[in-house]
TrEMBL record, chains A, B:
<dbReference type="GO" id="GO:0005829">
    <property type="term" value="C:cytosol"/>
</dbReference>
<feature type="domain" description="Phosphofructokinase">
    <location>
        <begin position="5"/>
        <end position="204"/>
    </location>
</feature>
<dbReference type="InterPro" id="IPR022953">
    <property type="entry name" value="ATP_PFK"/>
</dbReference>
<keyword id="KW-0963">Cytoplasm</keyword>
<dbReference type="InterPro" id="IPR011183">
    <property type="entry name" value="PfpB_PPi_PFK"/>
</dbReference>
<dbReference type="GO" id="GO:0003872">
    <property type="term" value="F:6-phosphofructokinase activity"/>
</dbReference>
<dbReference type="GO" id="GO:0006002">
    <property type="term" value="P:fructose 6-phosphate metabolic process"/>
</dbReference>
<comment type="similarity">
    <text>Belongs to the phosphofructokinase type A (PFKA) family.</text>
</comment>
<dbReference type="GO" id="GO:0047334">
    <property type="term" value="F:diphosphate-fructose-6-phosphate 1-phosphotransferase activity"/>
</dbReference>
<protein>
    <submittedName>
        <fullName>Pyrophosphate-fructose 6-phosphate 1-phosphotransferase, beta subunit</fullName>
    </submittedName>
</protein>
<comment type="function">
    <text>Catalyzes the phosphorylation of D-fructose 6-phosphate, the first committing step of glycolysis. Uses inorganic phosphate (PPi) as phosphoryl donor instead of ATP like common ATP-dependent phosphofructokinases (ATP-PFKs), which renders the reaction reversible, and can thus function both in glycolysis and gluconeogenesis. Consistently, PPi-PFK can replace the enzymes of both the forward (ATP-PFK) and reverse (fructose-bisphosphatase (FBPase)) reactions.</text>
</comment>
<keyword id="KW-0460">Magnesium</keyword>
<dbReference type="GO" id="GO:0009749">
    <property type="term" value="P:response to glucose"/>
</dbReference>
<dbReference type="Pfam" id="PF00365">
    <property type="entry name" value="PFK"/>
</dbReference>
<keyword id="KW-0479">Metal-binding</keyword>
<keyword id="KW-0324">Glycolysis</keyword>
<keyword id="KW-0418">Kinase</keyword>
């Protein structure tokens, strides 16, 4: 890789120079293959760029390489737009800033449209798998009328109907103020945080794995739904059969390589629109609701994953990469590159590194206890979430939309160089 | 409206200061109501901001007001992201530049992701109703692997299967080169340009209007499909029943106020993914295809409609607004504000105006001949389309993606101030 090649890709998004993979390294045969390939290519150090899973892998690889005296070092770098790789060593993962700003640009545009046409409720689902960091950050950047935070849904033990009621109540109260439009932010993983749905999905994962052959030969979705229903326990079967067919079908779609449901394929935003509509129809009949409700659904995922990086992310990545190379030249292995003091200007950032083992916890995976990096969920006592709670009523009843516009590279630093509200609030003195 | 109020909204997108409506003014009672309201409020001139329909309205209103000697002037301003209000007087409508740049930012991001993960085909449907100007401009800005242009589909009399074959062929050839990923741009109105679908949709419009009461009482989509099928002629019934249920249901959704199908609600991108998948499965069985095909669907509409405007659109709108006010002070009515020489720097732009009647044609509407402004479709002999044709094979077989990134307001003029490829190519000497 010459300087000329690298320069073409510098400060651009994505991984189109080196590619990207999702294969999990779990078996010794795979580890040995890595050693073999590295030795063949004369590679003395590997830099693993990824989230909690990839860096857990990096740690395991480093230990194995050391034990085998292969001489190959492994350094981890925190990358995930989801923002859930965060701990004492890692203030934020790169990509989170850019993804949130890109989604917030789009949410802002939609809010401007909502406030111009004044006739639609836009239900916007945002990528981010389990944790709701993206949803929370985008809410702070755009001030929508309703923001669902999965971690809160789980803590309160909310049902789907509770969620629908919460949204329908906002629609009703806004209608009383003359507003028949609004925006609702939905984290893509929320269905897995509704206890009854979580249980249903876990059962479906097991059933679809156990009866793979039987299900594969069924021709229609209806046949598959009927078959699966008979294998569920009574409670889950009741939930499953109460869902609209299209949504139930999505819950049965192909699992990911780890046997989990692919939350990005589940159109929760459409389900919620249908359920809110049905609830408001009932309330209208009962004379409790006199407004109008018309929903539009959106899902933002891939649009924000490989966006041209914000100045913050470009600076952060450059510093992380440089730090990783220093850790290698210092002979470290099993370390994660770390850059701290990130809300200060870049020349005051503090590069460093720490053993990945420091971040490991024992968790049950496939029935076995394994050391893994714990996913950081939204802290319901943290300042970013409390900021949302503090403003929730005001943002719901009024129209306090912010329109952040597109990421800027030039112009005043207050526009182009600041990072997320999340990080600023977390680090506020 | 004080200067202070206006300043807060200057150079921002959308219509949240004045709101936006879609009500068509067609009856004299409505015209009289406008006069009454204007007189009550002391309004001496109306500025109508909109596309072909709104400006047709502006023209009719102006004539009526003059005939009634109301003394109220009417001036039109060309606004539509669709880019289909374009003629000798109007070089482009405002909003087209911003919308295309916003969509192209997102398409570029998705292409970067496609080229990083190297495992998905992204089918991206773009707003723009009938005309494919947005799709064509975005293709020129991002160089995707496949671009469908509705006007070409109609000219060639293509069937859905022809479209699917075209895409499947590209997927096959790319797989032979080792590429199992790509991007496909789809104009939202394309189904209305496939002759058999156009006929089906026209029949459905009539049937759903004629049997409104009968259809309204049917409980399920299946019942509605069965009922509608019996009313279609043989050819359309065959097309209708061959469609996947979900798609057939979308074709039966509520019509817009003009009785037309709402193309934004029809998920053509999902239909095409399913059909391409089915075709490739057959080819795989026949040993003709050895690659992989996995589709991801996207629809971009509202995200680009009220975006923060590009410098070009902000300058253009300001000039149009100022020009409209000059036309009013000159006593004109029934004129459209016009600004020419738009690919030159803004200080060389040429403001002016022309009677809207100059743009009118007689067209059949609801069985009657009426004067309307003709929608400008993509010119299949024009330079923008020919540029696409010239590069089509190369962009399909190779990976020539461009990643335009977000709209910039600061920095070099070559980044922040240039307008669309469409306009540049149309005006190239």
């Amino acid at each position: 890789m010459s300087r000329e090649v690298v320069l073409e890709y510098r400060n651009t998004g994505g991984f189109d120079i080196i590619g990207s993979g999702r294969t999990k390294l779990e078996e010794e045969a795979q580890f040995d293959k890595v050693i073999e390939n590295c030795q063949k290519l004369g590679i003395k150090a590997l830099v693993v760029i990824g989230g909690d899973d990839s860096n857990t892998n990096a740690c395991v690889l480093a230990e194995y390489f050391a034990q085998k005296k292969s001489g190959i070092q492994v350094i981890g770098v925190p990358k995930t737009i989801d923002g859930d790789l965060k701990n004492e060593v890692v203030e934020t993962s790169f990509g989170f800033d850019t993804a949130c700003k890109t989604y917030s640009e789009l949410i802002g545009n939609i809010q401007r449209d909502a406030n111009s046409a004044k006739k639609y409720y836009h239900f916007i689902r945002l990528m981010g798998r389990s944790a709701s960091h993206i949803c929370l950050e985008c809410a702070l950047e755009t001030q929508p009328n309703v923001t669902i935070i999965s971690e809160e849904v789980e803590q309160k033990g909310m049902t789907l109907d509770d969620l629908v009621t919460e949204i329908a109540d906002v629609v009703m109260k806004r209608a009383e103020n003359g507003y028949n439009f609004g925006t609702v932010l939905i984290p893509e993983g929320v269905v897995e945080f509704v206890p009854a749905m979580k249980k249903l999905i876990a059962s479906l994962n097991d059933i679809l794995a156990k009866y793979e052959a039987e299900v594969a030969v069924l021709e229609t979705n209806r046949d598959r739904r009927d078959f699966v229903s008979t294998k569920l326990d009574e409670e889950s079967a009741e939930v499953f059969t109460s869902l609209p067919n299209a949504f139930a079908n999505q819950l049965m779609l192909d699992r990911d390589p780890h046997g989990n449901v692919q939350v990005s394929m589940i159109e929760t935003e459409k389900l919620l629109i249908d359920m809110v509509k049905a609830k408001l129809k009932k309330r209208k009949k009962a004379g409790e609701f006199n407004g109008k409700f018309s929903g539009q659904s959106h899902f933002f995922g891939y649009e924000g994953r490989c966006a041209t990086p914000s100045n913050f992310d470009a600076d952060y990545c450059f510093t992380l990469g440089y730090t990783a190379s220093l850790l290698i030249s210092e002979g470290k292995t099993g370390y994660m590159a770390s850059v701290k003091n990130l809300t200060a200007p870049a020349d005051q950032w503090i590069p460093g590194g720490a053993p990945i083992t420091m971040m490991m916890n024992m968790e049950r995976r496939h029935g076995e206890m394994k050391p893994v990096i714990q996913k950081a969920l939204v802290d319901l006592k943290g300042r970013p979430f409390l900021k949302l709670v503090e403003n929730r009523e005001d943002w719901a009843m009024n129209t306090r939309y912010l329109y952040p516009g597109p990421i800027q590279y030039f112009g005043p630093a207050s526009v182009s160089d600041i990072t997320t509200f999340t990080l600023q609030l977390e680090q506020a003195k």
